## 1
Amino acid sequence: MSAAFVIISILTLAAALAAATLPKLMHAALSFAVAFVGLAAFFFLLGAEFVGLVQIFVYIGAVAVLIVFTILLTRRDVEKDRGFNWSGVVVAIAVFGGLIWAIFKTQSLSVAAPGMSVLTVKHIGEVLMTGYVWPLLCVGLLLTAALVGALILVMEEKR
Amino acid sequence: MSVAIDQIFVNGKRWLLSWLAGAPDWLVQVASSLINIFALLAVFLTLFALMSVLERKILGRIQNRYGPNRVGPFGLLQPIADGIKMLIKEDIVPVRADKIVHFLAPVLIAATAILALGIIPYGRNMTPFTIDGGILFFFAVGSTTELAVFMAGWGSNNKFSMLGAMRAIAQMISYELPLIITVLPVVMIVGSLAPDTIVAAQDGYAFGVVPRWFVLTPWGAAAFLLFFVSGLVESNRTPFDVPEGESEIVAGHMTEYSGFKYATFFMAEYIGMFAITGLAITLFLGGWHAPVRALEFVPSYIWFFAKLGALLFVYIWLRGTLPRTRVDQIMNFAWKFMLPMAFTCMVAAAVWHYAGRGLRGWLWSFVVIAVAYTALSIILDTRKKFASRTYRFAE
Amino acid sequence: MTPTLQIFLIVSSALFCIGLLAALSRRHAIFILIGIEMMLAAANLNFIAFWRFSPEPHQPTGVMVAIFSIAIAAAEAAVGLALVISVYRHYRTTNVDQFDQLKG
């Protein structure tokens, strides 16, 4: 488990850093997709396979394709992102330092993983339909509203 | 005896693994996975080679000519000649193309197609990788294909490639919805996303004679047809091969690829076809089960590959018979017809289940599907209505 | 070394800060959206890690929150990208430094 963990974390963080700093737009968008593959691998490692599969499906199959399409539709032969604000780096490092300090200060976080029976899709389905049925319906409504809203925003106005 | 032949590959793998008897646990797991992967690749790459020549021969016969028949007996060694030709071609990359993206696109497409093959049960106890959410894995991997098609189109730095890639992605995204929603009735009735469980739920015979395959129920038949057509579209086969329409945009997103990379795209399309057909067999046609009780002595993998061959023949038949559809016809068909029919299949499956799964359930779900189909055909009647003609004759 | 909860939290906070970096220092509107998506994904990783290391992992609370969070993130990405496209139609640029008509 630990060798896989090290490899996956290096892959994910390297791809995320590439997505945040590469000047060429397409390369950054594609390394964003690779970072999410790494994140899905983390979910598999933690035993939440269903969430990992949903992550690949939604983020890489849908969100990454959306982002790539939008880059295509909003370029005027400008291939690179000019301008990089260095104060953002300072803020990000400061926030990282603060979070690390908070993590190491809390004593109750250095626990090992307890044993667990495998979480089956059937169990997730049962819980979704009994305990979490209200959030499920609300998310359905939210997705419909987002779909209709996005369509209206992008529709050409009739002159 | 028939059990021994049926389980011959399983026992063979166990014998191979017994050589590693004293090794640590992770080594045995890695070796087991590697044996599965090699067997899978060997079988499906051979099938790909065989199919590439069989398709041309069958297309030739449909068009009243011989197919390739020079290389080897009946032309069956043609794939070797094709392979040598593809390998010795010069690999041309456009100067201003994005080299990394251009290189990675065929790799990614082939990788996702082969990954999707891993969860299909090919015989009794012969699933390469059992994942609890196997069907979701298949669709997650399939949706990554769109990104790879886009990388191919954009990485070539060519307007036609970009146009072809956009058309291909629009087509694939539109048909992903009916593809997934037609799988939902099966998952609902079986209660599990694991392909092994779905195949096991189609075991047995109703009235002792009729197999309990889902394709023999009304919602299953409709869902199978919709799934089959969506599979045709997802693999960019005629009549839906607008992305690679040779008379329109050269080769679409594959225009700037030559030699081995083009062969990789070709292979990825065929292996995608095998994967979707394999999933259709698992979900609707009973997987590796025999259709009649008398023929159950035939090994399970023979049944699976026989069904695979039959469905692939139908694919080739459709390619030889139907002309290409227009892009807007494809989109209209997906959103206006297939999506409502897919939802109807889900409702019909629920009706079948709650009316008892016998004859009464069959009739009620048939009524639901017939009503929905008739309503849709009347509402969507897109035949142009011509004005009445007036004839003027010379007087 | 078996990864403890702290290691997972460090990785997820690193991912969060990289997303913050992308959102704060890039000047293209789409990259700010990418940064926001990365921050959401890092929070998901946090939830799953806490669920796995909790004393009662047979209750899939963390998994449920992560599933809904992924769905909501997809909806938000769609609307955000639609906004970017419609702003581009008006201003013909996606550099956020030039969206300053409400300034001062």
Note: Chain B has a mean pLDDT of 87.
## 2
Amino acid sequence: MIEIKNLTKKFDKLTAVDSMNLSISEGSVIGLVGSNGSGKSTLLRMLAGVYNYDKGSITVDGEELFDNEKVKGQFSYIPDFPFFYNNSTINNLSSLYKDLYPNWSDELFQHLCEVFPISKSEKIINMSKGMQRQAALILSLSTAPKYILLDEIFDGLDPVIRLSLKKILIDYVSDRNTTVIIASHNLRELEDLCDRFCLMHKGQLLLESELDEAKHEIKKLQIAFTKIPDGNLFKGLNIVNQQVSGNIINIVIKGNEKDYMPQIKALNPAFVSTVNLTLEELFIYEMGAAGYDVNGIL
Amino acid sequence: MSTESFKSKLKQAKAYLKWELKTNASTLISYSVLTITLMIFAFIFCSMLGNSLNLNNMSEKDFSTGIDYIFFSKVMHFKDYRDMLFYLFGVLGNGIVVGITIVSSLSYIAKSLGYLHNKRQTDMFGSFPSSRATTYISKIFSAYVISVIPALIFTLIVTLLSICLGQPVSSFTIPSIFGIIIGAFVNISVYALFAVCCGTTLNSVIMYIAINVIYPVVFLFAKAIINGFTYGITEPMHAKESLLPTALCPITAYNGNYVLYWLFFGIVVLVAGTYLAIKRKSEFAQSPFAYNAIGHIFKLCVALLFGLSFGTISGALNLFSNGLLSFAIGFLFTGLVSFVITHLILLKSFQKLLKSIFSFVALFAIIMVAVTALDLNSNNYEKLIPDIDDIASGGIVDNSDIYLDNVTGSMDFDTYTKNISEDFTDRESIEKIINIEKKAFEYMTATTSRKFSIGIETLMVQLQNTSTLEIGEYNEMYHNSLYSNTNDWTELPIFGVSYKLNNGSYVNQNFIEHWYYGDLTNLYRDNFNNSFESNINDEYSKLTRNVNHLTKHSNIASPCNGNGYFLCINKYQKSEDGKSVDVFQPYAVALSEKSNDNKRLAPLDTENKAIVENICNAYLKDLQEKPELMDKALSLWKVSNSDILQYHRDVDTEKNDYDYSIYVMLKHPDANLMLTLDGRDFIIFDSFENTIKALREANIIDDNNMIASDANHTATYNIN
């Protein structure tokens, strides 16, 4: 279990991660989403032990993470731009990983090499972006990590490989109780994979929730009237977004359906339909609520 | 640390070493091929040189005629040309190995520590399950191993080849091995420290090169200023003979000298680097610096380098009518400009420039306080003289006294000075000595601008010295050689004072000028020596021109001791028209005379030795009997032939009635070679009956005190 307490990381005057508190239990897939520069990659780097933090702590099963080689041995991290030397091949890198990581598995390595169709002896630097990511995945996942940290992992991967990756990750979680933390702007892919997500903005954790729970908490309602009544129709309700189109009102509402639905039905609508939000819509509305929306930018 | 943990770290270190070997395999092969190629070229070069000298047809005899015998056979101990060429191959071979090691170790460590300077590499290595310290030290160790092991193998090859070619394991092989082992360690550690402190490889390399350049140059300038401001008291430091000038110049660790110091230095640097590597913020990869302090220090070092150099030049040239002001303006201007330029080069922006300039201002203030304090204090020489009430006895000698050790013949002015400490016990004489010293100090007092000039002159001499003697072994040879009149420092004592205090301790003060052969600086002569001669010599003479002093300190009292002197009897005889003086040398003998090949000195035979001693003893006896002639008799000390002729004319004008034109001249061969001094000339008067008698017995002059008929006519001087 990873415990993040009051974690703060500053780059000169910029606070990349600001007093973050988070608990990550084992066997979960967590999506880190957020605006550009919100601190997702920085958080991942701190979790990977690359960056030290200015304040707070990260503990893994009670042990401090930073510069702790034993704890770091349980982690596997693929950054947004993995590094390879000019003469690196999967084969020669595998010997380094094998010597460094205590849980390296030759079986897994062989298996992953079969799953990802790339050459083991070709120079990785000459491969395409997607193939380089596959190379990084082969090496990283072969270490049989307890915690997998992935930064923009879907970039450059074709749909088939993306699907394979998602399947592999799910297998890791189910078979090995692995925890996967993925930072990505590809919310569609995350939605398929994550059971939890963390929404970050300006270094702060805006929302941390089970995906289903979040979807349950916020709904999009389409309400049709024969004639829209006058007055403040949704007074007292937590409306995140409201759009009127003729006699139809679309609202995004937070809260329990049992609480707000009687008030809506009291307006005598012709019909009401409830639609679950996608993760992307969740992101947009939550960020909008935090002042980060298209209107605010343009 | 538990055994398990240690084993784990060893495993990680091994993993990194394997990895570095893999990633550097091609580079390693390239350097090896380059080393072998250069060594083959060196061998071919030596062979071609041998062929061009026609080695096969040369004998040992030929050897001595081709190149200076003394240098190559006696100093270098070569048997023949072939021997010399194989030695040359050994030197070149080792030089090539060391040179390649310097370059290769730097390239390995720069590549190995690239993870500190590249964000992607930082992600990779930072996330590996090894501690920062383990990663850092493992990488240093890896770079060290792949630099040093091939170098040692090649050194072994060169040594084996040299042995196979008949060369002994020469004196450069062992230092070369130590040099590679310790030099690579120190330099890799130093680079690694800079790599931790910097955010880019370029800045790390700049810093590494800079420290190797800035420290020795700043040291030279600082030392030059101190020399200039304390001349007459401190001696210029010989660049080769001390650790200090290169103490922070890690590249010199490859010389194989001061092994313990460099080992300690390397360990300290390694520990500091490891500590900083643990504390380092990884996000500073690709930023100019991970620790801004190092950037500040570097900028200040550059400013110090340029500030000191141009400030000193400005002070010496007295550009602003005041030495100190000129120094200050020169330092401020060039220091500031170099500070700003360095800032722009390193940080590539004006950001934080204004803030950091305060550190330069602080540096400027410190330097000015130091130089001003030095300036104020430097002329306060008199405090060096002990209180007269504390002095039990004292003595004084100058450079025309013979300060050669009577037993070994070596020039040991320091030792000799102590011997004079009990010459005078009366208060009056001691006061005279003190007064002489005080007067000497007065002449040493110079303007600030002049002090800077002296500093510059000393620096120039030091630079020549450093560049010439960079090859350590040659330095040793020159030092050990009798013919040390080539490219070397020497010391010329001006005068020395010694006091024995009531508490039994000694105070020795030697006033020494340092100069470089072939480039005699006039700095002391201009300011001191001439003044000393013209103003102090009289008082000095009063104290020392007595038979006691001569007996104790002059070579005439014991001419046959030591390495030997030339003894010449010269006759200066006016021509018939009185317009010129012919110089005859009826008798010239060296206690150690030259051998047939005119190269070496051979012992003097017993007969000549007896003649020399007889003449000198007779002369001393004459001086003792006729003390009123003492001054005239010794008046030609430290003078040249032209001065003798001038004296000849002066005495002629005075129409003195004694024969003044015979001189005994004693010279020490080393002094003659090294110092180009005239030794001593003693005038023989007609009334010096004992000397005349001895000269007649030796058949040097006839009964009419005329020169012997077979005397050599050596020169004619025009006296008009």
Note: The longest helix of chain B spans residues 132-164.
## 3
Amino acid sequence: MAEPGVKSPLQKIRLPFSVRFELRATEPPKWLSPLLSFGAVVLALLLGAIVIALVGGDPWRSYAHIANASFGSLGVFSDTIVKAIPLIFVGLACSIAFRMKLWNIGAEGQFFLGAWGASAVVLIPLISEDTSRWITIPMMIIAGMACGALWGLIPGLLKAKFKVNEIISTLMLNYIAVAWNNFFIFAIWTEGGFQMSKMFSKNAWLPRLTDFSKEVPALRGLTTHFGLILALIAAVVVWFILYRSRWGYEIRLIGDNPKAANYAGISITRNTVLVMMLSGALAGLAGMSEITGVVHRLQGAISPGYGFTGIIVAWLAKLNPFVVVFVSVLFGALILAGREIQPSGIPKMIQGIILVCLIATDFFLRYRVRIMRRGEE
Amino acid sequence: MDWIIILQAGVASGTVLLFATLGEIFAERSGVMNLGVEGMMLIGAMSAYSIAIKTGSPWLGLLAGMLAAGLISQVHAFITIQLQADQVVSGLSLTFLATGISLVLGEGLSKAGTISLLPFYSIPQLELIPILGPIFFKNQNILVYLGYLVFPLCWYYINHTRPGMHLRAVGEYPAAADALGINVYRTRYIYVFVGGLLAGLAGATISLAISPGWFSELTTAGQGWIAVGLVIFAQWNPLRAAFGAYAFGALRRLILDIQGPMLLFGLKNPFYYNPYLGFFLQMLPYAFTIIVLVLGSREAMRKRMGAPAALGVPYIRGQRGV
């Protein structure tokens, strides 16, 4: 790789042509960005295959297994969607924060706090067990979002008031959130000494497709839950905020050029706090939907790293809320099928390789490659 | 509770943070923020442990751990220096990548059995000094002693040698450094590599000396991130880094040990009688990191001190910039 804009080392060898990288003077063509993302994913899967082969696995069987175990039938596709739902929320949470160049990597902790907040409604309990579903679920949504938002508010305030690096503070809060959750499932809400709370009453369950199998027999056994609708609504709302509202304009302007935003009278302090809260609330909603739609109780192992995968989802989707939905399904498949793959670190490694390839190929959005014949310069 | 023993173990545990923090200081002083410390530490810990098992030599393991982390750091170096990508995102992706690789390669390693560890020594005469002797010089691992040597050397190197001056110039004003004939790109590659070596050393210190073994992600348990925070608290100064690292090490040990005794200062020890309170103790190092960051950035604001001016900014030759 040559120093950008400078002669490449290829020139030292006498070739009839030379390769140069030049800063783009104009916007890159529209098709280039998705093409590069696609290329990055393909490249990542190839690299992943090499590593899997090196540790003695069969890469093509691993990949075929992932595809089959996640898209092979309606039943498993429904399970894939279930894994995608929290990813959509967290991907949206990261997208809106990253758009302002706020590096909220605390979605994992906000997820746990959201799950805790939603559980608190029925476990403290704030409402009696036979309260109707129409009241229970909205209350859990509000509590989950509020607790997630609180977990985003803390780093937001620290960043706005004391210029505390939000990457580290959000990460530290992840560990604190997990310990907080553990305290409650071990000490307070434990059921019979097990490290989990009691099962929620049915009124606190999000409806699943299979619940309607009496009316529509084809839905029997399908686990996709109402969280999907919430996630799609959230995607539309985030899109509207980012691209159709004045607030979104402010967020995007701060992200692109904080100085200009400041001169335009936009309060960076206020937006930092608000965006962190919104981001936290979305991640909290992910925890709430996972608890009420899938697990139906509060326990320790509720996230295979959704909060961190959401970062990659957001980046692969180029922070576009609708693309987040699509990318989440792919990563949901990776998480679902990855559980059975040995060695168990492979899905995580593939996620890492994808992210590395993605940011590496972004280079071509900023630079154009020119191949010149010798003597042309 | 024996405070001397807790502090002694705290110094050992602080050595891990010390190496990782010093490594990150080198990288950041050259203008490259590398958030992949946690991942590089995991790679270092895993490689060191696995090679030590395969060869039977912890020294070869140590070397392997450092080199493996140094190599993976070059992924970040290439992406941020050559391809000029965002250093935050690249560092995050390095953490994912390195964590994933170490989980894959470290599969089954925890059941691999015991290995010979790096040796422990006492320093004659020095160990007899009251209080300080047993804390710092009695029955410590050889890597702990290495830590005592390394941090003053780092400070001297950065502040009082010619290559150290070049390092600072590249981090503060790369265009001027370039004009003076310092190769900015090469300098940054080198110090990101040094940062990787030291992060690998930190990881190997865990797996071969302080708490031997491979426990997947729990091996480091976020210490890499604490190190990144300590760099800010240390204001990019190795001496302050050493103070912070040893203090944090002592805190981590105290949290482990405070749950043991029935009596604490002559009173009933609440952590003994209600072990669930231990979850709140577990939060402390992370909460303290945040507090330390608040204090650090307030002091930096007051003294108008700060990060290296070119930290996080890719250098593009011939372009007007910082």
Note: DSSP finds 13 helices and four strands in chain B.
